[in-house]
Amino acid sequence: QQQVKQSPQSLIVQKGGISIINCAYENTAFDYFPWYQQFPGKGPALLIAIRPDVSEKKEGRFTISFNKSAKQFSLHIMDSQPGDSATYFCAAQRGGDYKLSFGAGTTVTVRA
Amino acid sequence: EAGVAQSPRYKIIEKRQSVAFWCNPISGHATLYWYQQILGQGPKLLIQFQNNGVVDDSQLPKDRFSAERLKGVDSTLKIQPAKLEDSAVYLCASTPGTIGELFFGEGSRLTVL
Question: How far is A54 from chain B (nearest CA, A)?
Fold first, then answer.
């Protein structure tokens, strides 16, 4: 069963716009929530991650918002650029077992 | 620092044939994973090794899939016999053992005809 539900499946945004991807989880044992970025023909690469003791984390144009009570977290890509066109996966991990459960992915297309 | 190496990058086989994929993790990484990524889906864990021992293989179809990690370093994933639904990218990842970042290889794309 899918432990992390991700939406939307795809989105198109204009250059300079904001991309928002949402994820939800059920297992309260998860305590690490990364986002991975994958370009065609490449493996996923860590983009940004958050732990549930903070509600927001920002790295450059990428921000994770985390709502522990709702068991939801989201990725915001500000000032989207054509180079951000990729598939983004949210994931969740339980402390100690290093096993990641991935969402289904969101394909982001940034139009110039 | 060299990344996770995988080979072959592409493989096309007929159903019921066998195939093997190889992975060389980042030096010193104790934990190694094999993920299956079907087109349009997120990666699904097949098996996790800690050094040369299996930590989790609960989602590995053991009637046709097998994996081993030799001397706690390289790993091979074998499929025999292959089915059409095995068409996917097989991703290898490793981690030094701290919670957090998995380092993925570029994957091996399998097409079963």
Answer: 16
